[in-house]
Amino acid sequence: MSGYTVIPAADVKKIPDANAVIVDVRTPLEHQTQRLLRPHEHMPLDLLNPKDFMLRRGLDRETPVYLLCRGGTRARAAAEKFIAAGYPNVHVIEGGIVACEGCGVEVSSAQAGAATGTKIISLERQVRIAAGALVVVGSILGYFLSPAFYLLSLLVGAGLVYAGITDRCGMALVLTKAPWNKAAAAGACSIIAAPGPKSPGGCA
Amino acid sequence: MLKPDVRGFFDPVTATWSYVVWSEGAADKKCAVIDSVLDYDMASGRTATGSADKLVAFVKQKGLQAEWILETHIHADHLTASRYLKEKLGGKTAISRHILEVLKTWQSVFHNEKDTPLDGQQFDYLFKDDETFSVGALEARIIHTPGHTPADTTYIIGDAVFVGDAMFLPDVGTGRCDFPGGSAADSYASTRKLLALPDDYRMYVGHDYPQKSNRGPLCLATIAEQKSANILANQGVGRDIFIKNRIEADKDKDVPLLLLPSLQVNLRAGSFGSSVEGVQYIKIPVDKI
């Protein structure tokens, strides 16, 4: 079984629009906040079923698939899914949308919740609030109930250091599964650069 | 049963899905092309082959041989690239024999019978209802699914069902029935015919209008999904209700932007017809539509 390849973010500019597909596997909230300006598909990692995804978009087995997330971790998980489903032409965009922005690939400017008017705070802020709350709770319970609760604060602190150094945040991954982060946009969508059907009166 | 591989190409300007159908499992490299698009700009009268060339590139890259260039019906909203594709890829252009009725209907509007023969000889082949044929090793058949137009047909190739505009994806519904010869009652009967196919058959639609549901363009739903979820024509919808809803939905609909050039070119199997001093024309009938 062949594996996937990893391409540098700068190579996103070389991916053709025709006969290739870029799949952003981040959550609807993240996608709504900031996304590639070029044509791509959006399908959150936990909803991704590679065979179903490809069939419904009329893509064949050999169509090159390029996977994108925030930093590269979820894209790798998505690539494993495609490889396991038997797709031979699978690529991970190294460093995700963060790296894309860094090397001049066109990305929409960040604007939380602006598209739908829903006020969902960014994942980054959600992590800060959740981590801070856990530290406070751990300290209070540690003082009043049992010193064992200080361990909670210790763990969160260590986790934040780890997340800062490796840029992998377990808490963010857990938070992406929260219902309010899924409700932002129903299901998956794709972004097409062309203006869309402009002829009045289709056949529906 | 040999199951086909399908590659869809979406044209965002006319919201049309075109398909290349073949089988990786077969020894031959034969394919069929269904419902292709020739780009056309109404204001300037200019054609372009960007959409068709994507399809040509794909067929060539895969090393496929076009055996058939098929149309599900005479499209009213886009021009077929069948003639261009035949030049580039070879293959036989084909459509249902029912288009003879459509040729007759529009003869009184366009008077193009000199370069648009009423016997349909501009197509390489005219299918009879329920005729079986093959795409390489794939078994195929055509069934009559009128309603959107009187000559709409569906190609069933292996377990893939190409319905043209007889049905759309569950959240979009079915094709409009307000064109000449269209019939909501026929459309209902056609949807029942399609829903009677095996549950796991893949229904590929001729258009998708995803902006209505805030999603990207998709091309496929299973028969089971259509049965349970088609907003206009699911299993539970009765004939009278369907007809009432369809007529309601078609009230005051805009005429498709490309209706007049589409009909003239599509009735000629993709040709712009005879020329005057090398110039070809599209007729615009006044007060006839």
Kindly describe this structure.
The complex is a heterodimer of chains A (204) and B (289). Mean pLDDT of chain A is 84; it is low at 112-117 and 193-199. Chain A has helices at residues 28-33, 50-56, 73-84, 96-102, 123-144, 150-166, 170-176, 179-182; strands at residues 5-7, 21-24, 40-42, 65-68, 90-93, 189-191. Chain A has a six-stranded mixed beta sheet with strand order 1-5-4-2-3-6, covered by helices on one side. By secondary structure, chain A is an alpha/beta fold. In chain A, helix 5 (123-144) packs antiparallel against helix 6 (150-166) and helix 5 (123-144) packs across helix 7 (170-176). Chain A folds into two domains: 5-115 and 185-191, Rhodanese-like domain (Oxidized Rhodanese, domain 1, 3-Layer(aba) Sandwich), CATH 3.40.250; 123-180. Chain A is elongated and about 65 Å long. Chain A has eight helices and six strands, in the order E-E-H-E-H-E-H-E-H-H-H-H-H-E. The longest helix of chain A has 22 residues, at 123-144. Chain B has 289 residues and is an alpha/beta fold. Chain B has helices spanning 50-61, 82-89, 99-110, 184-195, 223-229, 239-250, 259-267, and strands at 5-11, 16-22, 30-34, 39-41, 46-48, 65-70, 92-96, 125-127, 132-135, 138-144, 153-157, 160-162, 202-204, 220-222, 275-276, 279-280. In chain B, strands 1-2-3-6-7-8 form a six-stranded mixed beta sheet, covered by helices on one side. Chain B has a six-stranded mixed beta sheet with strand order 9-10-11-12-13-14. Chain B has a two-stranded antiparallel ribbon with strand order 4-5. The longest helix of chain B is centred in the N-terminal third of the chain and has 12 residues, at 50-61. The mean pLDDT of chain B is 96. At the A-B interface, strand 6 of A face strand 1 and helix 1 of B.
